[in-house]
Amino acid sequence: MDTAESSSTLNKIQVQRFKPDDNPDKHYLNEETGLWSWLTTVDHKKIGIMYLASITFFFFIGGLMALLVRTELWTPAKTFIEANTYNQLFTLHGAVMIFLFLVPSVPAALGNFILPLQLGAKDVAFPRLNLLSYYLYLAGSFIAVYAIFSGGIDTGWTFYTPYSSSTGGAVTTMTFGVFVIGFSSILTGVNFITTIHKMRAPGLTWDKLPLFCWGLYATSIIQILATPVLAITLALVAMERILGIGIFDPALGGDPVLYQHFFWFYSHPAVYIMIVPGFGVVSEIISTFSKKHIFGYWAIALSSLAIAFIGFLVWGHHMFVSGQATLASMVFSFLTFLVGIPTGIKMFNWTATLYKGSIKLASPLLYIFGFFFLFLVGGLTGIVLGSIALDVHLHDTYYVVAHFHFVMVGGMVMAFLAGLHYWWPKITGKMYNETMAKIACGIIFVGFNVTFLPQFVMGSQGMPRRYFNYIEQFQPFHQVSTIGSYILGLGFLMVFYYLVKSIYRGKQAPANPWGSRALEWQISAMPPLHNFHHTPVIINGPYDYHKPMEEFQLGLAESGNGHGHDVEVTKEGEDLSAE
Amino acid sequence: MDALNDLFLPPAKSTLASQTDTLFWFVHLSSLALTIGLIAVIVYFVYKYRRKSEDEVTPLITHNNKLEVTWSVIPLILVLIVFGWGYQVFMNQRVVPDDAYEVNVTAQKWIWQFQYENGARTTGELHVPAGRPIKLVMSSNDVIHSFFVPDYRLKQDVVPGRYTEMWFNAPDPGESIVYCTEYCGTDHSNMLANIIVHEQDDFENWLAENAGGASKPDDMPPAEWGKQIAQEYACSTCHSADGSQMVGPTWKGTFGSEEPLADGSTVTVDENYIRESILEPNAKVVEGYPAVMNTYQGQLNDEQINAIIEYIKTLK
Q: Which residue from A155, A344, A360 is facing B51, i.e. has the nearest CB?
């Protein structure tokens, strides 16, 4: 009876091994060429590359503004620009880096390229929607850039009312730009969630899903649920400015603190939009370069979701001194500490993954270790700021500036660079100069610490942020910080130089230069136009380094030519086992 | 420890500041220990388990429930301690003692004004007695500002349309700097004030001398008094007396001159124009300057406005 039943629920499918081609004649870049093929492409890989180019451009624009801000702070009074120019520069630095670089960086650029490859899919679920996301991002960016040239804005990236509803300049234009970019973010989220649910290859069950996909999944949930609130808030600001409807401005009968609630309801989860996909990158790279199964797969996967959900409930920790109720501050502080726990769990799990591994300190892993230290500092200073009494002292000082730069630049940008170095051979088919990559990583790490460690000290001493003039006792700290920022800038330029150079002069990359078991490395060096010539079949997890490489290169046998293995698969597509 | 304290934190000049400092060091030192520990483990692993050959096979270790529960629960306990501790100190900062001495604080771009029980008023200087709880009742005339006293480890946003409060007790006479820490525009970073803590007797004397506030000292010529008011009310933050370019037009040589306005017309700067500009700043804005000045209606009386006009007349 038992045998009869089980045989009725099992189908046998034939699979065969598909060895990746190290040097394919045709790949996604040379099958369709010309400018038009790029502008109208629905290929997730090309869209990913267009995102990559755009965010790189805006990263350097934002970086240039940062250097101007730091240069102005060399002396306590005016160094070379006016106070109003300075105020616009720090505003634009923040707005450009957050909305035009950080939010789309890992999900839209790397995620677009890698996600379908990791799922064994030919593309994302809605390729045209994906292209629309990119054009919305581009349109929003142009509107934002137009705002810069048509009066600029000086509100800080937070657009706090009633200052933002009363100041001059192009606040309405800028918020409209951010509004449009928000839609790009929402559409990407919808696309990724659908893709992860519906487009997984046969056998790719949820417990075999790469952790990068889990990271993107959690991120997409936040993007869909939080971004509309930002859009509504910015629309309300615009209505107040244009129509004079009193919502946030007390002069019109509004409540300025309400704005802060709305704004942080998006902007705190947005912090996780920026960092959670970075966590995914870290998991992939740690496992690959220590050739070892990731430690605590479910703990890492679920902690991303936990962060996504608890992250919605902590926005009030930006408002401990805003005048909100003492009780509210207490609840928000408590929840803030809870969100620290899943983050800590991840750090411990990654460390444990290294135990008894076979660790190769290649440049992607080096960037990850940079991430490790900087993110640890950023995270622990977040614990400091989550404690209400300490936040009362440190709020809106350079301590906060240093904290979120450690998280956003030290954590996120390092993770992004790690991912970029890791997947570069897959994206471009070329190897970069490994020595230069290691040196640049060192320069960035040193430059970053020289820039931001002094800011913790002067923040603790009371140096407020967004100050054009400051009292003389802070000058040594500011000068060290400014020197650090130049070193940091040099490091980023170096990365740009050797990566671009590798496209023209780099060595040909093999299909799987790191010996990874993950699916995106089991296809040709540069992926084919539609990613897979075969339908991949997954029988092992992406971190099963104890199993031989052959078992990771399986696909549905082409019309059963007799060379395949038999694989049993249940009707639900679960529980695969090789025979 | 004292040397560390001096490097990282400003001097502790209120009764509660040391509570914040103890927590500050508890969190930072335990974080430092954790950071060093974790980095040491990583460095050790990276060295010990470095790749010796490309064919190495690693053992399959998927998870370890005991270990994972341990490293979830211990940090949870630690952060709950930090939470409870931080909340307790915060409650001490929030609950104002009953016998606190009240001072009203008004913030506006880019000055701090203080009003005392007997009508005394100061700008940019807060005078308080030592060893007595002081309660500040604060509101803003325009945008959000924030009252930050690093020496007291205290900060509170000052919001238009509502009152916020904070309290402190400075045991010893001395001075402490006040920063505005909520970005409020061009001169945000110049929006400073000083807290001057007097002995109780000195404070009583100071208060008595300044009772009633806005009346002209007997033996002072109007122009000189006007100069004093211009400084107290921070007019000089935006209007220079020496012709240098600031946020607003300079006062040097302005009296009697013809100024082009933003709407294309011109105006002769006379007593009436200056008075109007003080009470209704946006009525006639000089071309090339932002319309950012706030009204001083209700803050300056006629006598004070006259004194400012006299002062401007002397700036040839």
A: A360
